[in-house]
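INFO batch 0412 | record 1 of 1 | parsing
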Amino acid sequence: MALPTPVSLIVSSIFCVITFAGMQVFKTALGSNEIMTIVGGFIGSILFMLLLTGVSNAETLMFGRGFQTKLPEVFVCIIVAAAASGFVHRVSFTTCVIFSLAELFYMNRVSGATYGATQVTKAVAPTPKKRR
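INFO prediction complete | emitting tokens
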């Protein structure tokens, strides 16, 4: 069951802060070996998903129900999540970007299946009539 938009904004914002704080608390453990740096990047991609959900819900509240999140908002959320992962380890930064792009691909697929794909309409130029 989906949450209403204002509640989803609050929940995703709270989880976003908790995730960032957890990354900072366990910074030494996440940067201790190779596997944990990859886990740090995965946690950063979860942070990206939470940030994107919060930004999208805030835009929906401000601009109306029909508004969609565009590419600049996605890039800002990826940069913020990758920077948070970069505070943990350099490799976590890179893996966060990779996991976030994969997550974004699947979020787009699920969104298209749930809400329907956008239809592209082609403008048809009128054919000129022959002169007699």
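INFO post-check: The longest helix spans residues 34-63.
INFO record closed
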